[in-house]
Amino acid sequence: MKHILLAAFALHISTTAFSQQTNQSKLIDSYVKEAMKNNKIPGLALGIIKDGKVIFEQYYGTENLEDLKKVSPTSMFRVYSTSKLTANVGIFQLIEQGKLSLEDNISKYVENIPKEWQEVKVKNLLTHSSGIPNFIAFEDIPVDDSNAKVIERLSKEKMEFKTGNEFRYNQTNYMLLTMIIEKITGQSFNNFIINNQFSDSKNQVYFSSNSLEQIPNRVQKYNYNNQTKQYEQTPFDNGVRSHSGNGLAITLPAFLQ
């Protein structure tokens, strides 16, 4: 009799927990759909992990508005500037290995840079206090220009401010960090990041430093124009140049695998 009561009690707890989780999932699902409607979001994938376990997994909308392909476990989402964190981590990994110092001048690793850049230190790139011109501000820099050509073009511009005196978010800083990593390791930036930060989950992450690369199942990003009442593809997905963080990392979240 005691065993029957314990079994019944356990079944009751299990049923109650399942019911609570079902209600919770319904609330999450309802919230997401309402948020998508209010914010004009074409599609998304959502995974919620608690205590190392997936407690909610769902896919909404479409990968793009051209063929209306549904978002699914194979959909590839860009993480955009979140990938800049991987560049930062990569730099500090090299510092931990004794291959690099925050106080090193970038001229130690990057060749043919302007005189005004010679005293810029690695720490100035990381803290956006370099004062180096931001390549994103110059429309005459082609998307597919090499790093060397970008530096050559920027060398014609004045420093934005004296190194170390101000803070200004700057894409060129990350281009240079990428070049430093490649110089020290002899690897491509992509391979270095995959091998040193995602070695245990290589099959779950696709990392590319080429924003123009054609990736199967990549989700298109859109902005909603309230005036025209239409979705518009974002400039980043139409060929704007980017380096180590501006729409570079394309990942399959772990909960999708």
Written overview of the protein:
The chain has 257 residues and is of the alpha+beta class. 34% of the residues lie in helices and 13% in strands. The chain has helices at residues 2-39, 84-96, 122-126, 147-154, 171-185, 189-197, and strands spanning 43-50, 53-61, 77-78, 205-207, 222-225, 230-233, 249-251. The strands form 3 sheets. A 3-stranded antiparallel sheet has the order 3-7-4. α2 (84-96) packs across α6 (189-197). It is globular, with a radius of gyration of 24 Å. The model is unreliable at 237-257 (pLDDT under 50).
Structural key phrases:
globular; 3-stranded antiparallel sheet; two-stranded antiparallel sheet; disordered C terminus; alpha+beta; 257 residues; single chain
Contiguous low-pLDDT stretches (5 residues minimum) are 237-257
Major β-sheet annotation: 3 strands, antiparallel
| Shape designation | globular
Helix content: 25-40%
The H/E string reads HEEEHHHHHEEEE
Main β-sheet, spatial strand arrangement: 3-7-4
Gyration radius, rounded: 24 Å
Question: Could you give the count of β-strands?
Answer: 7
Give the termini distance in whole angstroms. 44 Å
The amount of beta strand, in percent, is 5-15%
Q: Structural class of the secondary elements?
A: alpha+beta
Query: Treating each run of at least 4 consecutive H or I residues as one helix, how many helices?
Result: 6
Nearest-integer average pLDDT: 83
